[in-house]
Amino acid sequence: MFRTRRLRKTEGIRRLVRETKVSVDDFIYPLFIEEGSGVEVEIPSMPGIFRYSLDTISKELDEVVALNIPAVLLFGIPAKKDEEGTETWNDNGIMQQAIRFIKENYPSLYVITDVCFCEYTSHGHCGVLCDNDVDNDATLVNLAKQTVSHARAGADMVAPSGMMDGTIAMMREALDNTGFPNLPIMGYSVKYASAFYGPFRDAVDSAPSFGDRRTYQMDPSNTDEGMREATFDDEEGADILMVKPALSYLDIIRKLKDGFDRPIACYNVSGEYAMVKAAAEKGWIDGEKVMMESLLSMKRAGADIIITYFAKEAAKVLAR
Ligand code: PBG
Predict the structure, then answer these.
(1) Atom of ligand 1 nearest to the CA of 207
(2) pLDDT, tens digit, for every residue of 109-159?
(3) Are 68 and 318 in contact (CB under 8 A)?
């Protein structure tokens, strides 16, 4: 008789036959950095996640390094916003200051920057507006300026999240032409217009003041279009392809893993984090177990890299 249960009998044998493992090496931890001083504000819908200013962020960075998390993904929250988000390419803007601060004080930490405009524009959209919509090609021009400014400040990798067509080609060319041919790009290749971003927009104050992002982010219904997006990014020279969000899009992660010979990342987004935290707080689920099971599912689906607000917590679980 087939007895599949023979190999499930004890933890010893379960460990031996385990196919998928989550490791701290897989994690990128997002950080929200606000211009100014004395900022240490917990995001109400993301318990345990804070906005910091550069004078308060060291204990967070100490912890990230102590837990052996390899990389952080930086989001800047500027003091002033304008129509075009011109602060994004200010060499002394909050992002650029943050990059320099971290590379100077935590040289071993790998610093990835979010390249986008929504936190920097007065209207909260991810680029330059024209007729109440984001103008793709005008945005690309600014995107190149922002990218080179992050590179000059010392970023280890850049990650554009704005979903404009031609982003990767534009950034690659800009980096190659300014002496940064070795700086990698992680494409937010398949990014859906998702309601799971809600808590993030509270965190960085980037909700669009009118309309939504459906003219540039993808329709959650579409798989083939996701493959096309990933193909463009791959051909334009993205070094890593990302799927975002993660949990409701595990099928897309698997498609990319099978279809491309690039490392695949997924972004376990704010709403996914908030749901686990909220249900755990109510005592409705075991938050720690659900966290680990969710991260495992992303790996099993094919993700090589997981961007997650759970990075510190999961690293602690993995270390025991
Ligand atoms: C900005 C950006 C967003 C997220 C990452 N970069 C929000 C959005 O597209 O509206 C979401 C991250 C999260 O929800 O954790 N373009």
Answers:
(1) 10
(2) 999 999 999 999 999 999 999 999 999 999 999 999 999 999 999 999 999
(3) no
To the question of pTM greater than 0.70 for the whole model, the response is: yes
- Measured distance CA(65)–CA(311) in Å, rounded: 12
Within a domain: residue 5?
no
Domain count for the chain: 1
Q: Pocket around ligand 1: residues whose beta carbon is below 6 Å from it?
A: 114, 116, 118, 126, 161-162, 197, 200-201, 213, 269-270
The domain in which residue 88 lies consists of 19-318
Q: Rg of the chain's alpha carbons, rounded to an integer?
A: 20
Give, for ligand 1, the residue of 190, 206, 266, 276 to mutate: max count of ligand atoms closer than 8 Å to Cβ: 206
Residues tagged active-site: 191, 244
> Is the peptide bond between 199 and the residue preceding it cis, with omega within 30 degrees of 0?
no
The CATH number of whichever domain residue 260 belongs to comes to 3.20.20.70
**61 vs 28, 32, 103, 260, 305, CA distance in Å?**
13, 12, 11, 33, 20
pLDDT digits (tens, 9 = 90+) for 34-75: 999 999 999 999 999 999 999 999 999 999 999 999 999 999
The residue whose CB lies within 8 Å of the most ligand 1 atoms, and thus the one to mutate among 81, 191, 200, is: 200
8 belongs to a structural domain:
no
Q: Is residue 256 part of a domain?
A: yes
> 57 lies in a domain?
yes
